[in-house]
Amino acid sequence: MKKEDKKEEIADNTVLPIKEEQLAEVHTLSVEGKEEAKEDEEKEAESEVEERIDRIERALQDQAQEGEKPQSSSFTFTKIIGGDILSAQVLRNNIGLILLIVLFIIIYITNRYNAQKYLIEIDKLNTELEDAKYRALSSSSQLTEKTRESHILELLKNNKDSVLKISDRPPYIINVPE
């Protein structure tokens, strides 16, 4: 064990001071490096946050502007489907036309409603007219039946209190001179 003790002594005397110096340098370098790295990371993070804030502010300013970008004079199918036609500027420029179209739509709906109301009334009156025609036809046929000569004769025979009789001679025409 003496050999091992001697080795440790030699190692303690010679190697340790070198290692301690190196370790101290490495430690100071690593601490300084870590601090610098942390500072660099913090600076990078701050710059990224500032860039994001700038982008967000620009986007908010673009959205908050009341004036809109001027539209091109030609409307394409994609602009109409995409909703560009409903921008405030287009609506402001064409407000008179829009109001006129709305007025015509209201008149159209009112006219259609009135026409349907009149058609319903006409159908109702037509059904009443058909009913009245059938009643008139029925009453006319009953009257025709009751005023037939044969029917009247039967009534006269059944009553027996009547002195009227059917004549045996045919009727003749009396001519009156003027």
Automatic annotation (TrEMBL):
Q: Which domain of life is it from?
A: Bacteria
Question: Keyword set for this entry?
Answer: Membrane, Transmembrane, Transmembrane helix
Ranges annotated as biased composition (Acidic residues): 38-49
Residue ranges, annotated region (Disordered): 28-51
Q: Where are the transmembrane segments?
A: 90-109
- What is this protein's record name? Cell division protein FtsL
